[in-house]
Amino acid sequence: MTTPRQQTPRPLSRLALASSLALGTCALPMGIGQVQAAAPVERAERQLIRFDIPAQALDRAVLAYAEQSGVQVFFDSRKLAGLNSPGLQGSHAIEDGLRRLLQGSPVRYRFSAPGQVGLERVEAGEHSVELGATHVESSRDGDWVYMAPRSVSVITRAQIDQRPPRHAADLLEQTAGVYTAVNQRDPGLSVNIRGVQDYGRVNMNIDGMRQNFSVNGHQQRNGVMFIDPEFVQNVEIDKGTSAGMGGAGVIGGIASFNTVEARDLLGPDKEIGGRLRAGHGIGELGNGTYFNGSALFALGNEVGDILVGHSERHFGDYRSGTQHAGNLGTQMRGKLEDRQAWKHWLNGEVGAMDSVTRSQIFKLGLNLPDTQRLQFSYFETDTDSKDAWTVKDAGSHEYYYRVTGSNDINARNAALDYSLNPSDLVDFKAKLYYVTTRQDRWNADNAASATSGNRVEGYSDRYQTDTWGLQVQNTSRWQLFKADSLTFNYGSEMFQDRFRPSTERVAAANETESLPYVQGANPTGKRVMASLFGNLSYEHDDWLTVDAGLRYDRYRLTGKTGVTTWLYPEGITETNLRRQRTDLLFDQEREEGRFSPTFGIAVKPGPDWLQLYTRWGRGWRPPAVTEAYMSGRPHGGGNEMVYPNPFLQAEQSHNWELGLNIFKQSLLRDGDRFAAKVAYFDTRIDHFSFLDTNVSLPGSSVSGIALGRSAYQNNLQATRFRGVEYSLDYDAGDYYGQLSYTHMIGSNDFCSNQFYLGGAQQLVSAGTVLRPVRVGSRILMLPVRVSRAEANATENNRVSCGDIMGNAAYMPADRGALTLGMRFLERTLDVGMRLRYSEGNGKNLDTHGYSQIDQAMWPKYKVYDLYASYWMTPSLNLALSLENATDEAYFVAMGDANNLSLARGRTLSGMLEYRF
């Protein structure tokens, strides 16, 4: 006799489900006549799954069935309109449960592959309605996040299509707890989770492949990735520390950008599929939006599948918004000093914004015997863009954009994935990957005069980061009793980052003697990190979940760097003791490891639709190559200088959160759905690394007079990021709404030793010595005062606060988004409105100074977008998007203050999509 088994949908299976539901957009032709279910996996046939699906509309019941069973269900919700299901309760086998769910409905099913089933509606006379390529309501794809007892968010493909992204940062703007440091000219994406970003604090990955490319700019984005939104199927954001795959060296969270798979374009009995998309700005409202689109083509059957695709995106100069410009403050672009120039800047085009991005994707998968699968993936993105400064012409009282550099960036990703899933004890996955990102940058001259000694001619740089990675994990599951289950996920990951910069820069005359270690701000070096992890999860009777995890991370950091300074010689007593040039050389290999535990508990205190959870965990992040070894002029000239800190300590985080999930069906009307996720989070980071902009070098006698000389230091104060996240989602079929909001709490102080390497010196009197002294024509032996150098304990212990440049200087401002929409014409027409809002942080808007330039001026804003999507046929869709409908003047801040540019004004674009 088979023991009934409760199976709770797992995050990974739900993610697979989310991807598979999008497959309903493809044609699903099925034969007529007696439909027999192809045999699923034998163990799936035998096991019983506990279902709890109330009576409701059939399309919603089928989605609930897919969620609870883990089976991928392909169907057209429009063909099921008007049909109801009696619901499904109790423990049933997969096929028996589906048969009972469809009881009394003119719908047939067929299992075309293990874990995949397609539905068809049968009309009078036994004629089935063909299921062509169609749009499935993919707002359902992310429902599993409202049942997961942790802080996680998902951005689905349907949400992406509602507002076609021009910058990859647009993908995340509506997600609670997530920010993006945006430089509008740079297509690179830097993800901030709950105030934490940079240097691998957030694992930004594409299909699990870490994107660790880093080029130092103005300390707003130290680590960027390049992803083409056309190839993104969904984005999953896991917040906080993790004892699972991808958590090595992570203290902020994991941002996974999952690309399209062949199965997203195929389906049961469908061996050929594809998607063509072409978009363009419309008329004068196109506002610098030119052609952007893609072509994807897939072939597949039970043996394997192949996917190929190409994408192009072209953008140009645009007009910014002009309304409510008073929100920008009085100091932005010298508003009070030159009103005429301010108006010209506000009403003129934002220049040097032209960019071209081309991407390719290729995936080849083989289905091997005994539930094995092998897949090779390759995708490449090549993008060209410019850097520019806003410069005022004093004579004409106009601003213009001076191009200071141009960039050719190429990012290539290759991976080999293997999976084996023969039983509950073996769900094995392995990945070997290689990521290389190269930036070729031309830099304009620094505009200094040739006679100043500071002139640097135009030159080219190359920055390259190569990452090798290996991931191995297995998940074992046990059904202990009728209502108890145990899951153990364990494995290992390792990655190596190698930084290989080069430059043709010729140092200025004044640099040649004084600064022999100018390498630019990106040093050569290597970091290797390896991790072992295990996470044990226990579930009891659908109301209690407890999990505990432990990981061990170990890293090795190697690199060479140096500091040139001037020191008094020790042990020497002189009458006129002078400092001597001293080269401090660091050729290091550092190695360290640490254990990091996590723990979580979730309960349903009464109603089935409410879950309370809390989580606690520790994280550990060792310094990156750039933080420890960077040196040189950050801007190519001037007096600024960045020095290395090879003694930088690893960061340690303590994460705690308390949250609730709500998932209630048939709340206000039959078949509707309300979901909510609310969480309070508190992240404390010890030894937080920040760029101190006023450090003193060994040999100095006084401190606090070196503004512009910078090095990374560990904060002597605990750094905390606290706040509350809200995510609400209601869908009644014909109308829907979503709300997200992030409220950050508190602020931080950043304090460090002025002499970050120590070595403060002072001259003290050593008495007198007899020295020959010429007096007239005679030489006499006379007493002469002499000095010697000693350590200056007072200066070596001096601490200063507030000299910080970087995104952490100010807490991110509160931000939210509200979406309201309606569906017409049997839900083929979807129209809606979105409000994006931030109250701003108010810092430095009406006053400014060097020490505050880093926060990039975050004014408040309120931006409205409109969108519409109409499936004219099951295969053809027309989508329109009016962004910034009220022409608001605003920034999506946290970007590079010195490259600051307003966001686009009112912009209308269209997208035509064809699926086959």
UniProtKB/TrEMBL annotation:
Q: Would you tell me the Gene Ontology cellular component terms?
A: cell outer membrane
User: Main location per UniProt?
Assistant: membrane
What Gene3D superfamilies does the record point to? 3.55.50.30, TonB-dependent receptor, beta-barrel domain, TonB-dependent receptor, plug domain
A Pfam family it matches: Plug
Query: Which top-level group of life is the source organism from?
Result: Bacteria
Q: Which UniProt keywords are present, listed alphabetically? A: Cell outer membrane, Ion transport, Iron, Iron transport, Membrane, Receptor, Signal, TonB box, Transmembrane, Transmembrane beta strand, Transport
Q: Which GO terms describe its biological process?
A: siderophore transmembrane transport
Q: Where is the signal peptide?
A: 1-37
Q: Name one GO molecular function term.
A: siderophore uptake transmembrane transporter activity
Where in the cell is the protein located?
Cell outer membrane
Bilayer topology term: Multi-pass membrane protein
Please list the residue ranges annotated as the Secretin/TonB short N-terminal domain. Answer: 71-122
**Coiled coil (UniProt feature):** none
Family membership, please give it.
Belongs to the TonB-dependent receptor family.
Q: Which NCBIfam families match?
A: TonB-hemin (TIGR01785), TonB-hemlactrns (TIGR01786)
What is the protein's name according to its record? TonB-dependent receptor
Q: What is the lineage of its organism?
A: Bacteria, Pseudomonadati, Pseudomonadota, Gammaproteobacteria, Pseudomonadales
